[in-house]
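Question (not urgent): is this output format expected?
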Amino acid sequence: MKHADKVITTAASTQSAAHSRIAASWRRSIDHYGLDPSMRPRQTILSQNELRDHCEAVGALCDIARPKLDQLFTLVCSSGCAVVLTDKRGVILDQRCDGADTQTFALWGLVPGADWSERNEGTNGIGTCLAEGRSVIIHRDQHFYSKNTAMSCIDAPIYGPHGDLLGAVDVSSARADQTETINKLMCAMITQTTKQIEAALFKDAFPNVRVVLADEEDTGRGALLAIDSDDIIVGATRGARQKFGWKTEGQFQPVPATDVLGRTDHMIGFDRGERAAVLRALARSQGNVSAAARHLRIGRATLYRRMQRLGLVRKS
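Got this back:
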């Protein structure tokens, strides 16, 4: 059976589409986007000016991602792979590949400015990753179009500081002997790369506050919180929003850090703030009570009494 016939037959089966994400994507490509797997699509390549506009539209993403892409490419370059960064529309913004493979990937259309959205190319690593907002592996004949079945494509999405989808990192392989095991290993590396990019974007968006990990047993979701000097959470990554049941993207509603992260003492109201202020003053003065009192603009005896009331002085 020809590849196009297989795609059409599988996509037409409601049972297949219900049980297979690949079949569901094939059906989406036909029903939603009106694509025909037996036709060779005319690929869209943006002009240099149009590509520049797309790069400017994603803000700091390209600059922040660049060193992470370089690092990833050093790990996969010997395997005949290209490393690609896209925006949320599936347009390739940046690419790395070995000189010997440049012509191969160019013939496939895997070049800066190319539109690899599912709407344009049907089921493929970049487009399907962005359409479904998750990491995907599209291995050879899982692609929608026959022209793409020589590739294995592994992708992971990139979410911005406010939980919104920004783009994806793709690794596409030109090797015929690429195995599913290798694909899974690469998927883990790509996902790690996207989490590093997300963390860097988050810190760049909240430069004057503390950024903390929300979960000591973080499972790779990148659950980061931005906490200001008043111990108010003013920002959260998508992973943190999912962890705490907050709206996954958009404007973040500030919330006290202690309401989310808890604390070991049982103080309430102003005692919490006073205790925190005293501890900060003592830390700045390296435990010198007189210096801490001067910093707080109160007398040493007053500070000592407050320390006793707040449980900061051991009883003899």
